[in-house]
Amino acid sequence: MKSPRRTIKELSVNIVDQIPSAKRNTRHNMPSCGVCKLTISMDFTDENSITVMCRNCADRYHGKCVGISSEFFYNLIQNSKKGWLCHICVQDKWVYMNKIDEKVNAISETVENNKVEILSVKSSCDAHFSAFADKINEIENKYQNQIDEMKLKLLAYQNQNQIPSTIEHHNNDLTYMRNLQRRNNLIVQNVPIFQNETKQILKQTIIKLALACGYEINDSDIVLCIRLKQNQDSSTDNQKPSSNAILVKLADVSIKDELFNAYIKNINNNTPLTTSRVGLPGNKRIFINQHLSPELVKVKLKAVKLKQMHLIDKLTACYNVVKVYKNGKWEKVYTIQQLDQLMETSTVGSSGTRSTNNLPTTMHF
What CATH number belongs to 184-230+242-291? Predict the structure, then answer.
């Protein structure tokens, strides 16, 4: 429920009681109206007597002198938390606010002027930077053209120098591919030529040779078995040789390696493979070798001579490399030049070393 509405007398007495004693009489000994200067009665028995006091200067005023009705006064007392300001204090407040506005306007104007000046400086800097960037781009383009021209000249020079290396690279690739084709192959030598010889007869002969070495292969393990043509420099007076080498291509490199290892084991056991062991006439030695490239054949032949001269200890050959054992380690050799360099390196500082340059590089075996 709303509290009952109090009378003006009750509100006025309450206001006076709340006024600090220091502010109850600041201008005169007795309260007087700030407008009409008449004494303000402190008798609140008159319901029509309305007085108000400024919350800022504590001066008192008749309600009728400042145009305050009883209704406005009642609402002021009930609702206003800040109190009432007289016309003098209101004017002073507006003067103060106007001064603040002036200062704010002055600051705003200064800020705007500074903003315009900053924008002008920025525009000037942008223009200078743009000109500077254009100059840099001009210099870069100039030197870039020179660099591009030098690159073209260098590329042309490199292309000229790369022709030999390109040829060498292709030759190496070709050698590698040819070696891959040989890796399943074996060369069998000193097998007599049969009368009315066929590929099947050669296959059966190779199977007998494998059995004599202690290794068993089947007909399906042999992919190719043919007689090679005799080199022109190995035949004389156009006479047909008594035997030509046989090229045997096996189905898998592991079969080739196992058959070759079995042949080497017989040699190491002093039971070399001969024609008589496989039911062929005579007692000639039969040789089985890896199918080497012409260059590696030369390397192996020279290495064999070096071994006979006790310049190397051991040697072995695979389809793509010849390995020589010297000074306690194995070395891979691919060319005659590498073999010569190896021998020169291993004999530097030693006296009485025999030259290897005059050793033969071709030999039929």
Answer: 3.30.70.1820
Determine whether 215 is exposed, middle or buried from the number of CB atoms within 10 Å of its CB (0-12, 13-18, 19+).
Answer: middle
Radius of gyration for the chain, computed over Cα atoms and rounded to the nearest angstrom? 62
DSSP state of 326: E
Q: Which residues pair with 84 in a beta bridge?
A: 54
d(CA 274, CA 8): 150
pTM: 0.47
Do 184 and 221 form a contact (C-beta atoms < 8 A)? Answer: no
Handedness of CA 29, 35, 41, 42 (dihedral sign): negative
Identity of the residue numbered 259: L
Contact (CB, 8 A) for 309 and 172: no
Tell whether domain 30-87 is in CATH 3.30.40.10: yes
How many other C-beta atoms are found inside a 10 Å radius of the C-beta of residue 77? 18
Using CA atoms, how far residue 84 sits from 9, 70, 76, 159, 252, in Å, is 18, 14, 8, 101, 116
Ordered mean pLDDT values, 10 residues apiece, the chain (365 residues): 51 47 48 81 58 81 80 73 75 69 80 86 84 84 84 80 71 73 90 91 94 93 89 38 80 92 90 90 90 86 90 83 88 88 70 44 34
CA distance 224 to 251: 9
SS3 (DSSP) at 320 = coil
**Three-class DSSP category at 299:** helix
On whether the CB atoms of residues 361 and 304 are closer than 8 A, the answer is no
From residue 168, alpha-carbon distances to 155, 174, 271 in Å are 19, 10, 44
Query: Where exactly are the structural domains of the chain?
Result: 30-87, 184-230+242-291, 292-345
The partner residues of 332 in beta bridges, in order of sequence, read 323
